[in-house]
Amino acid sequence: MPELKTLELDKDGHLANLDDWSPELAQDLSTQEGVGELNDRHWVVINYIRDQFMEKGDAPSIRKLTKQSGVSTKELYQLFPKGPAKKAAKIAGLPKPKGCI
Amino acid sequence: MKQLLILGAGTAGTMMLNKLSKTLSPKEWQLTIVDKHETHYYQPGFLFIPFGIYSKEDVIKPKNKFFPKNSNVIFSDIDQIKPDENTVLLSNGKILKYDLLIIATGTEIRPDEIEGMDGPLWHKSIFDFYTIEGALALADFLETWEGGKLVLNIAEMPIKCPVAPLEFIFLADDYFRKKGMRDKVDLTLATPLDGAFTKPIASQELGGFVKEKGINLVTEFNIGRVDNKEKKIVSWDEREVEFDLLVSIPTNMGIKAIERSGMGDELNFIPTDKHTLQSENWENIFVIGDATDIPASKAGSVAHFASEILFENILSYIKEEPLTASFDGHANCFIESGDGKGLLIDFNYDTEPLPGKFPIPGIGPFSLLKESKMNHFGKLGFKWIYWNMLIKGKELPMEPQMSMKGKYIPESQEKELQDVE
Known about the structure:
The complex is a heterodimer of chains A (about 100) and B (about 425). With about 100 residues, chain A is mainly α. Chain A contains five helices and no strands. Chain A has one domain. In chain B, the strands form eight sheets. In chain B, strands 5-2-1-9-20 form a five-stranded parallel sheet, covered by helices on one side. In chain B, strands 11-18-12-13-14 form a five-stranded parallel sheet. The longest helix of chain B is centred in the last third of the chain and has 19 residues. The relative contact order of chain B is 0.13. The mean pLDDT of chain B is about 95. Classes of the chains: A mainly alpha (about 100), B alpha/beta (about 425). At the A-B interface, α3 and α4 of A face loops of B.
């Protein structure tokens, strides 16, 4: 597995290449982001947003995520403190969510 | 006789009815339009009501005035659409069958989506200005307000008219200044965005105004609840902003009938092809205006440009030809910046608002992304155009597609944009 610090990042500090990501790397990214040890609930979120990204080309909104993944907004902020949409995307190896118009 | 049914007689629905009734043969097609209100609201005017610039009379007219003669008009709420059966159930018990359906049911504010928002302070110290009731109540409140902390909060994106919150706070700055009480008012904009606006170049320019006018900017603020007792809004990450007056842009959602019909996304917006405006799931359903999920601004100008594309595509669909007209997401918005001045932005799916000149034949160029008195008059003049031309479906001297004519990319941004590519 490549070292985190040798990987290419985009201008927002997210992984530049989707293929560089692996579950092991997610743990490294999580530690770097101050989120700590990833548990089952973190993985529900990470897997969901990765699936959505592969399908739609962008990470889902928090509203969609909480409606469809079974993780409430409150829990989401506990899992990924301070900006779950961005943090979860970063750990999931995805670009910063485009957000809205 | 075939049935063409339009749900919603706001800006988009009324324009479509006017365009189609002129073209489709009344022997072949019966056109029907449904809306719950008999009053048409000039929604861009709501912004001016709290500051006493417009009154209620400026923004309301009977809907009937804008329908072609002999239109089949039904005033009723919609209960449910049954897209697999080509029928619509109305709340008045009627069942309408259609061959072709245009959904133009718009968006509505949902204060009930935020804990405590529609509590005891709603329309007492917490106001919206996206409804006529909210705008009028806020006008009454401001008339006698002696000052304090005014907080403007955007709950979540997307919202109708994304520039309106900024315009509100610029106009508020001007209003309190002219009343000689600006020093008694603390203005704060608390937004879920990471800057003053969604698009980078415009965000930078508008962020400059925010700073110049002494407005506090709280970014990435995702509201979790309103504390009615302590008069503060609290974000999901437990940041707090105190208020004496909260002006809220609550969550915007498509109407509940869309949810009941199982046709919407998590915000009840309908999945729609962003170029053809055909529903993603049913080929005899088209969607226009705020009701769609297309990644364009929810604004009257977008509905207007989209209406020209949709008109073409409906005619193609009826002739069983391919849908060749393609919407580019074009939006064109005047932004009030206070003190009798304004800005203009013009953009689409691919091009963000850029500075430059915006030519309108016969009227002259407006400056883009730059303050001018001309832009302010453009905004005020638009009311006349809206009532007399736009919703009647008349031609305006503007192409539906955005043009790069007169626009330029600022040097500081040019490099960054190239880097991205």
